[in-house]
Amino acid sequence: MTNDKNTPAGSAPNLSSALPGARAALVLLLFINLFNYIDRYVLAAVVGPMKKTFFGENAVAGNGDLLASILKWFQHRVGFKPDDALLGLLATAFMVVYMIGAPVFARLAERRSRWLLIGVGVILWSLASGASGLAGAFLVLLLTRCFVGIGEAAYGPVAPTVISDFYPVKMRGRVLAWFYMAIPVGSALGYVLGEAVAKSNLGAWGAGTLGLRPESWRWAFYVVVIPGIVLGVWSLLMREPPRGQADLTTAAKAASVPWRNYLVLLRTPSYVFCSLGMTAMTFAMGGIAFWMPYYLEGRPGAPQNPTTIFGAILALSGLTGTLAGGWAGDKLRQRFPGSYFLVSGAAMLAGLPVFLGVLYAPFPWVWGLVFLTCFFLFFNTGPTNTILANVTHPSMRAAGFALNIFVIHAFGDAASPVVIGLLNGWLGDMNKSFFVVGLTFVVAGVLWLCGARYLARDTALAPTRLNK
């Protein structure tokens, strides 16, 4: 099933085109990424009804004495209820487990079938998502989101390396942009699905017919289970591409890379600047993605279905931003060697004033500013991930993506939902909480612009970096 051997002498790959099977692999991974983000952001879409279920006046009895003690202690010691912070912890717990698991699975991916890891991971997170809907207590829900993180950790750092082994350097910007366009589309579908299901009668039907809990929001987690399992099984049937065959390299050391060689990543300026910038961007993205629907629902003049509208705008702006960023980075690459950094940094700096405008513009004008904010946030998706792939030795790509995932989530969106939740409780004004998010736009933009001068050299050295 696997084929990890280096290309034999005399059968050098065609470095100007994709390898056989590339399109099928890309389509499958795109669909998996789509459901990945549906599952992530359906959670943000049902924050309101979940808050009523677990923290409202008629909160479920299953929460138990432990959570009640935590709430009582926090309110007594700090002076405000931590409901929002605990809801943000659902996203944080997922991210913490995800970032810890990613390096472990990346190490396995250097020696084992990557499609096997992807398939098992997708099936695990699909089952864990269904279990989230069954949770009768908040702490049980928190535990199920941790298991979702384990499943996604088996997929996240591995999938981009499979794509990179199918496509040559000159095509990766556009191809990875197509792959990562599933982020805005999947996120948007998660918002739309979550709000639609939460307002439906599925809860009453499920309680009467299947004996399930009566809240409709739970069905937002149930409906992703079967498609996820199907995609996981499909992954198990795929063939492994030869590692590094699409690169200008001779002998990729794919069998086993010593841990000390991973320090090479920290001595690669492009990798460091890219990862630090992505950390700041991910902080902003995580905070906006989790809290913006809830924030918009509470704004004066908000329409009846703000989450659905936000999801639709996110899909369109994220899709166009992702594809435009990938196209711009590739198009300018011949004229500006640091183009991937330049387009990413410029977009983040342009997004700051637009995002601040979202906080004060009235409806319906706010929707145009939301569109532009999301467009600029997603503009860097293809270019930054292309940087990571291009400056990393082929045998270390999974490790490179895993380390990146650990850093950007540990200091990015693992923290921002809880930080904003705490600020909401303390300040009582989400506008002020979102100002913290605005600062990270500047940080990301400046870091990426600083990295541009190193990209051409680091890309040229990547294939032979471990051979020296």
Can you characterise this structure?
- By secondary structure, the chain is an all-alpha fold.
- It has one domain: MFS general substrate transporter like domains (Growth Hormone, Chain: A).
- 71% of the residues lie in helices and 0% in strands.
- Helix 1 runs parallel beside helix 9 and helix 4 packs parallel to helix 6.
- The radius of gyration is 22 Å and the shape is globular.
- The two termini are 32 Å apart.
Q: What is the element layout, followed by pairings?
A:
Elements: H1 22-45, H2 47-55, H3 64-78, H4 83-109, H5 114-134, H6 138-153, H7 159-166, H8 169-180, H9 182-198, H10 202-209, H11 219-222, H12 225-236, H13 263-266, H14 269-297, H15 306-331, H16 339-358, H17 365-378, H18 381-390, H19 397-413, H20 416-427, H21 430-451, H22 455-461
Helix pairs in contact: 1-7, 1-8, 1-9, 1-12, 1-14, 4-6, 4-19, 4-20, 5-6, 5-12, 8-15, 8-18, 9-15, 14-19, 14-20, 14-21, 15-16, 15-17, 16-17, 16-18, 16-21, 20-21
